[in-house]
Amino acid sequence: MTQVSIAELVAKARSGKVISFPTDTVPALAALPKNAELIFTVKQRSMNKPLILMAADSEQIWDFVKGSQEEFEIWQRVAEKYWGGALTLVLPASEKVPSCMNPNDPTTIGVRVPRSDIARSILSQTGPLATTSANLSGKPPLQTIAEIETEFPNILTLATTAYDSKTPAIGIPSTVAKWDGKKWQILRQGAINLDI
Fold first, then answer.
1. What is the DSSP string of 55-89?
2. Domain spans of the chain?
């Protein structure tokens, strides 16, 4: 793996490559949504495990989901309360979401805005990215650049000098909550307790 500047990392993501960067939970593997299948290949991940669309802010998210005005108001209230943060919302996907993001169920998409300045800086320049934790499928999430370099020698990551290590990742995956049309279902309990 090569450690690069934010500018180089952004350029590589825009050119269609898989990259890695720190988030507020665990480090991510990321690619443009249309190149999501590359993440499944690199991670050796089953196609029945969807990827998460991560964005710099909630405004980047809403075009990728569809629902009634009432549903959007509910979703936006939750987003205002918990984003940026370790909460992934699984919502009905709009036609803007490539089916390769969630091959098993292209009607839904997991979306998240992290509480990491460096991740949001990257995402503000690339636009929303398809993401997942940086690890081979079935193994624990990798926590350090050194571990990522060993596991994924061909993936670009940020030079350690490019971000502030005073705001470390919590090392726990995000909570995943799915909207069932009426209420939230917790699919994975992670760092945040949803109180709604």
1. -SSGGGTGGGB---HHHHHHHHHHHHHH-SSSEEE
2. 3-188
d(CA 10, CA 31): 10
Closest C-alpha to 85, from 163, 24, 171, 168: 24
User: 26 Cβ partners below 8 Å, 6+ apart?
Assistant: 133, 134, 141, 142, 143, 169, 171, 172, 173
Q: Which CATH architecture has domain 3-188?
A: Alpha-Beta Complex (3.90)
pLDDT less than 70: residues of the chain:
1, 160-169, 196
Q: What is the pTM assigned to this prediction? A: 0.92
Could you read off the pLDDT of 45-83 as tens digits, one per residue? 888 889 999 999 999 999 999 999 999 999 999 999 999
Give the C-alpha separation, 163 to 15, whole Å: 22
Q: Which two tokens stand for residue 91?
A: 């919502």
